[in-house]
Amino acid sequence: MIMKHRQLGASGLMLSEITYGNWLTHGESVERAAATACVRAALDAGITTFDTADVYAMGAAETVLGEALRGVRRESVEILTKVCNPTGPGPNDRGLSRKHVMESCHASLRRLGTDYVDLYQAHRFDDRTPLDETLIAFDDLVRQGKVRYLGVSEWTAKQIRAALDIGAELGLRSRLVSNQPQYNMLWRVIEPEVVPLSLAEGLGQIAFQPLAQGVLTGKYQPGQAPPPGSRAAGDGRAPRFIARVLGDELLTRVQGLRPIAADAGLSMAQLAIAWTLHRPGVSTALIGASRPDQVTENAAAAGVSLGDDVLRRVDETLGDLVDTDARKTAQMFAVKEGWARG
Predict the structure, then answer these.
(1) Is 116 one of the annotated active-site residues of the chain?
(2) 284: which strand partners?
(3) Residue 223 lies in a domain
(4) Which end of the chain has less neighbouring CB within 10 Å, N or C?
(5) Where do transmembrane segments lie in this chain (predicted)?
(6) Considering 20, 56, 149, 183, which one is annotated as catalytic?
(7) Is the residue at 134 inside a domain?
């Protein structure tokens, strides 16, 4: 298998169709040696794009990723990270103020062991900071050579539109080129508003959770406890997030995807990832893993072609459990104080 690459939106940056991410794994639920083995498996599979964030395991995820990529030619990989969510107890240890953006970027570069990141993303929208302040800070980082491209994650269409308009009014040289939303067969809330805007304005989608926290792999069975070794049965925060998408009716429908995958010669995980890669505007599908074999299996979804009949059968099987409510954009990971933890 040869990993294919796609342009990130209308930018010139090329990303591997599969991106390896380390939320809830590196520095948290996966030992360092296993994390390094997963990164090596990703590289062996042709994955060149790696996504992390300053808040993942409170910085440890960036450190582990940086160490795992040590010795790899820097120009041969794309490193993506994020800023916004709380990284400390202080009032300025969060958000998109100029202070936090600058300090967080410099800390991320130190942890990652690199002079620059290829894509710097606003992890969530910050309604406490003037948007022009954030955009100017981001533009300055690009001018300084510490950031190559800019993006956002889980922003609504209205928020993206505002950023594009303000950036144009200010005459900033750097504009947003990407959005990183949760997107999979079951969760399609970006389709009514975010996707049309992004297509019109040249933003590519970096789709995370194409497997819906592993639910779309079929390993969680209706009426049964999560299998040993799965994220839902583990420690840390993962079980709390997965519990949101577990339910007997949903799990029963998901099992109905099994013959569709078999007919296509794919595992259920590969079917789910390939489905995401078929959606308009998707530049890459972001996977996570706790074992190297998971990386290898999921990476094989790159370049898979799904016929219209397969896509129709998926929609018929999942039926009314598919969520397309645009009002739910960013809500899946919101908390009461307005800061997302995902």
Answers:
(1) no
(2) 206
(3) no
(4) N
(5) none
(6) 56
(7) yes
- Nearest alpha-carbon partner for 20 in 76, 103, 82, 77: 77
Looking up residue 46, the CATH number of its domain turns out to be: 3.20.20.100
Closest by CA to 330, choosing from 163, 91, 127, is: 127
Question: Is residue 27 in some structural domain?
Answer: yes
Tens-binned pLDDT, residue by residue, of the chain (342 aa): 689 999 999 999 999 999 999 987 777 878 899 999 999 999 999 999 999 999 999 999 999 999 999 999 999 999 999 999 999 999 999 999 999 999 999 999 999 999 999 999 999 999 999 999 999 999 999 999 999 999 999 999 999 999 999 999 999 999 999 999 999 999 999 999 999 999 999 999 999 999 999 999 999 998 877 776 655 545 555 555 555 667 889 999 999 999 999 999 999 999 999 999 999 999 999 999 999 999 999 999 999 999 999 999 999 999 999 999 999 997 765 433 344 434
Total domains in the chain come to 1
Beta strands in 155-296 (DSSP E): 176-180, 204-208, 282-287
